[in-house]
Amino acid sequence: MSANTLTTSHSRDVQVAEIGKNTLIFRSRTWDRLKFEVEYSRQRGTTANSYLIQADKKALIDPPGESFTEIYLQQLAQHLDFTTLDYIVLGHVNPNRSATLQVLLSQVPQATIICSRPAANALKTAFPELESRIQAVRGDILDLGQGHHLSFVTVPTPRWADGLCTYDSATKILYTDKLFGAHICEDTLFDEDWKGLDGERRYYFECLHAPQAKQVEVALDKLSALGARCYAPAHGPVVRYSLSRFTYDYRQWCQGQKSQELSVALLYASAYGNTAIMANAIAQGLIQNGVNVESINCELADSAEINRIVETCDGLIIGSPTLAGHAPTQIQTALGIVLSVAAKTKLAGVFGSYGWSGEAIDLIESKLKDANYQLGFETIRVRFSPTPEILQQCQEAGAFFAQNLKKTKKLRSSRQVVTEAHVDRTEQAVGRIIGSLCVVTTRDEETHKGVLTSWISQATFNPPGIMIAIANEQNADLMHHPGDKFVLNILKEGRNVRRYFSRHSTLGDNPFANLDTKTALNGCLILNEALAYLECTVQNQLECGDRWLIYAVIDHGEVLENEGVTALEHRKSGSYY
Ligand SMILES: Cc1cc2nc3c(=O)[nH]c(=O)nc-3n(C[C@H](O)[C@H](O)[C@H](O)COP(=O)(O)O)c2cc1C
């Protein structure tokens, strides 16, 4: 069947078309809002895409959820002899999809299920009788014949810990599951009108991926090596015409999230998904109000990661179900980290789903209050599944939290604003000079020092040389003499490395203890989170006013990350940093 012979219908249906050699798409379609979760709120319907590759062996990718079980299987039966199906590949599992899977498996008793290790564990718990038919991927290639070699890439995120993408070398189609989708229902199969999809794509990203931008970036890195020509997502149009642009958009949107001025750690656990749905709605409220959200599914994150995020965030929100009168152990651990690590000036929030008593929510709220944290919204308690009204309330709570966070921040910087009103115009103009934000590292035997500076520029081509202006109080005595060595670490926009070296840092005396470093050839430290570094030797220095101008030649340098841009220091006035 060709993509041009498709029909339009406004009741639920399954659209079938060929999208590559031996490859069919089954688009289970609804023009109505499928569920009440925030991601469906634009009311443009959606498609649940499943794919069938029929070579010497046959593989079915991602059967839809239970809303479509019956019509999907009816349509599938028209194109596939069920007794010949060899594999069912799953990009993720959830109870909704398991319902369709259960019916399907009863009709294809010979098929093997291919999925990630966490998905295999979940399926074995749900269907112990299927254990021998479940195969977790291990970097192996699945050969379906006729050039269809399937390779698998695990893409775990807080929301889909079991995420898996599948790549077919014969068609160069990458089956991306939850990545690169959009909730929109149309007859058009591909993305010819990709500009018209921008709004839906962006909204889908914001709802599903913005709170897990860090993990999505890791996934993009892994997938970039495959050289895919087409993305076949779980929802919305197949991406054929705008693959590069869409990939670039994902990168930019991830960067955009991470470079927001304010960030909130959203810590949660959810055994049955109710608390997770609330977490997503709260995240939406925060993101729509310009706050970055770092989602932490406490069942998956390790303590070091929680520690790092809780330490650097501006606000924190904890969500928990109540199970047997308690919060799950992972939430208790996370709460312990918050109480010991997070500054008491950080704004906090609490939410959760419960059945009858809800002790976990009360416990978290009282511990935070006792420790003197201010709550950024009134604690949200929900019995079992949240209703659309409750989700709306969660979203509003996220928005309210964001506004509170901004107010707190404004209050703290109000002194600075008052001063600015009196700064003369020359100083304001001088403040428009900007520089790359860098950390200069020096070494005195076993002692390492780091100085944050943006007063830096290239000074010569031949030899390659730089100029730095350093104040006496910056304590940079190890770079004042010809022959002194240092490393210039050029910071990356969107990372928060600067806070370890700021004069107002409360993160301890040794900034390097919190950072990943390696030693340069000249013995000083390279920050692995920098965008690039330069190893330098001081040639000359000149005392000028309240600064020393230091000229140094560059002995060696390297770019550590090809993606991303240099962090810049913007100032309102030339009279202070
Ligand atoms: C094994 C089990 C134990 C539970 N114990 C409690 C409890 O002690 N108190 C309570 O209020 N709810 C209890 N519940 C209800 C859950 O808190 C409720 O189902 C909640 O929606 C789960 O949230 P989640 O979907 O985010 O995991 C229990 C549920 C299960 C399955």
Account of the 3D structure:
With 577 residues, the protein is α/β, with parallel strands linked by helices. The chain folds into three domains: 254 residues, Metallo-beta-lactamase, Chain A, CATH 3.60.15.10; 158 residues, Rossmann fold (3-Layer(aba) Sandwich); 140 residues, Pnp Oxidase, Chain A, CATH 2.30.110. Helix content is 29%, strand content 28%. The chain has twelve helices and 29 strands. It has a seven-stranded mixed β-sheet with strand order 1-2-3-4-5-6-7. It has a seven-stranded antiparallel β-sheet with strand order 21-20-24-27-28-23-22, with no helix packed on it. Strand 20 and strand 21 form a beta hairpin. Helix 8 packs across helix 9. The radius of gyration is 27 Å and the shape is globular. The chain starts with 12 loop residues before the first strand and ends in an 8-residue tail after the last strand. Bound molecules: flavin mononucleotide. The site of flavin mononucleotide has 18 residues, from helix 7 and strand 16.
The helix content is 25-40%
The number of helical runs is: 12
The general outline is: globular
The share of residues in extended strands comes to 25-35%
Tally of extended strands? 29
What number of structural domains do the residues give? Answer: 3
Instruction: State the name of the first-level CATH class of the largest domain.
Output: Alpha Beta
- Radius of gyration (Å): 27 Å
CATH homologous superfamily of the largest domain?
Ribonuclease Z/Hydroxyacylglutathione hydrolase-like
Distance, first to last CA: 65 Å
Strand order of the largest sheet: 1-2-3-4-5-6-7
Query: Helix- and strand-based class?
Result: alpha/beta
